[in-house]
Design a protein that fits this description.
194 residues; alpha+beta; Pantoate--beta-alanine Ligase, Chain: A,domain 2; two-stranded antiparallel sheet; rod-shaped
Length: 194
């Protein structure tokens, strides 16, 4: 019997193992691929950070524009102001009187101060806004009227008409007359008996 080690077809000097040169080449390829992947991960992290900052700047810009529309922020051009909740971001407001009385072209700019390396973050929104002093504002106090009955009982209507409280007499657009609905003449409905 012949042993498996004594195989006559096998050449002498050829080994089935890897050589040192092959291992070094494989290791170099692996390290090169790892460096490329790590650079891609770092770049993707920077892009994600920039997108997050741009989304925040857009939300802050929309919020400040909503404050202008509601009348919380005065309708006048203003310089760099900072946000209380995000001190790295600043805002500015440009308000130009439009061609129609009471209609303003408002532009809100939000920018992020650069505190680290990265792309600058800016957002700008423009909208035509009716003057809140003409239309009404969230800062206006509603008026409540009360009436007293002649028999000594005090009753309060507590109903200020929203149209009268929210719109002053001189509005740029004509408002349709309020329609009243007739009230039933009998104030009670018959009760069902058991």
């Amino acid at each position: 019997m012949t042993s498996p080690l004594a195989n006559p077809t096998r050449k002498r000097g050829v080994r089935p193992a890897l050589t040192l040169l092959e291992v070094v080449i494989a290791l170099a390829i692996f390290l090169l691929a790892m460096s490329v992947f790590s650079q891609m991960l770092l770049r993707n992290g920077e892009i994600a950070r920039d997108i997050k900052r741009q989304n925040l700047a857009t939300r802050l810009c929309q919020s400040k524009l909503a404050e202008v529309v509601a009348g919380v922020v005065p309708l006048a051009s203003q310089g760099d102001g900072s946000f209380d909740e995000e001190p790295d971001y600043t805002w500015s407001l440009t308000a130009d009187n439009g061609s129609v009385v009471g209609l303003w072209n408002v532009t809100v700019n939000v920018a992020r101060q650069q505190t680290d390396s990265g792309n600058p973050t800016q957002c700008s929104l423009t909208q035509m806004v009716l003057d809140p002093s003409i239309v009404g504002s969230t800062q206006d106090a509603p008026s409540v009227s009360g009436t007293t009955a002649g028999s000594g009982d005090s009753t309060s209507s507590g109903a200020a008409t929203p149209a009268a409280a929210a719109t002053p007499a001189a509005t740029p657009a004509a408002t349709p007359a309020a329609k009243s609905t007739p009230s039933p003449t009998s104030g009670s409905t018959p009760a069902k008996g058991k």
